[in-house]
Amino acid sequence: MQILSRLLSRRSPATVEAAAPVLPDVVIAEPFHAFIHRLNAITVPGDLRAIRGGRPLRAIVMDETGAQVRVGEIAQSAPGIDRIAFPEFPDGTGPAFWLFVVEASGVEASGDADPAPLVPALRALAAGLGPRPLLAVGCEGPRLDRAQLSFAMISDEPPAATLPPLDQPALDQPALDQPVVDGDTLTPEQRQWREEGVAILKGFLSDDLLDPYIARREQVARPGGWRSPTPYMHVEELRRICLHPPLMRVLNSLVGEEMLLHLNLTGWVSTERDWHQDEYLSPPFVNSWYAAVWIALDRIHPDAGPFEYIPGSHRWPLLRGARVRQFMTDEERRRAAVTDSGYDAWPSVTQSYVAPIVEAEIARRGVEKRAFLAEKGDVLVWHGRLMHRGSPARQPGLERRSLIAHYTGVNHRPDMPDRRFEGGGHYAVFHTPLL
Does the keyword Transcription regulation apply (predicted)? Predict the structure, then answer.
């Protein structure tokens, strides 16, 4: 998100009235997280100096408690990216910080100025703004070494109170507004879902259902299938599979509400997308009301790069995009922002350091990697927090005929309001061409 879209000036003046007599003119006030030892600089998206027509600005960076505060200089580090440098914070500071950008007339021009007298007013301002989404920043420090990053530094626990029923820590003690689930009445699929984060349905889909889609897909020359993320909008044979009533009933029973189809992957070769959790690519409000389906359209050869997963990893902390992105270099940010698809490519750009972190966590926990070696018609449903990957093909180019579909609970995608119902379930409506 561009920082220019989050200007403090859009707030009511009454919000900062108490701080106005003490603070200089505050242009921006945003929270962020940093997990760098001895933080001494951050990079932010946007051109801060353009906000006030080029008038001098200063940055004030404060830890959440107000015990440590620094004044920083703002300079452009790359087109569309500003860098704020300041005297380093001591070890143990953070990870929660606030960034304030103010008119320089109210702060000494020197970075050595003592901002301590402003702390009470800054804390009052932050408290008055209430909960705000974290600003995505890059973080720098003298000891930044991505080889030292740990899984805990790029993940956290999602709020348990709003998790789906089968994800509650104790089924007989659900969170507020959640139904009580009798563990003795769970279906085999629900039990496997709760324990392993998957539900495997052997021979679930018939040839009569799959073959029309296979014939249609064979007309596409690209091994990766359609480029469009929503080919279901145009391919009825695909939509018929993804909204098959028995499949939708299983999905609904695992997640706890009716599910909404919104994404397909139609490649017939391994994606070779390394270890990740799908949910960390979704908005925070999804919060585990998410599932994906892997459908085998033929026998899957073990050398073709089968789907691999870590059983039980859906109970691990959740990777967080904001935490992952803070360790990106400026060059990686530039590469992520400029792609042929028009989408921000940070998930693929950051795989170079996320995958080794996950591998280290797998080794630390001593858990197994499991491959889904399926027959035609077999289905694997996986949890949004399950750690999984498209494994590298040992025989490059060997076909791995499959269809992947992603779903979210209908009450947890307010960003997808246009919907239709067909067959056994809902799908989100998008107006993207079939490419």
Answer: no
Average pLDDT for 292-315? 98
Global pTM reads 0.77
Is residue 110 over pLDDT 80? no
Using CA atoms, how far apart are residues 297 and 305, in angstroms rounded to an integer? Answer: 15
Tell me what pLDDT residue 226 has.
98
Domain borders along the chain are 3-144, 187-428
* DSSP state string for 364-410: HHTPPPEE--PPTT-EEEEETT--EEEPPPSSTT----EEEEEEEEG
pLDDT score of 180: 64
Exposure string over 57-85, b if 16+ CB within 10 A, otherwise e:
bbbbbbbbeeebbbbbbbeebeeebbbbb
Amino acid residing at 340: D
Instruction: Give the CATH fold of the 187-428 domain.
Output: Jelly Rolls (2.60.120)
* 8 Å CB contact between 286 and 375: no
Q: Are 269 and 225 in contact (CB under 8 A)?
A: no
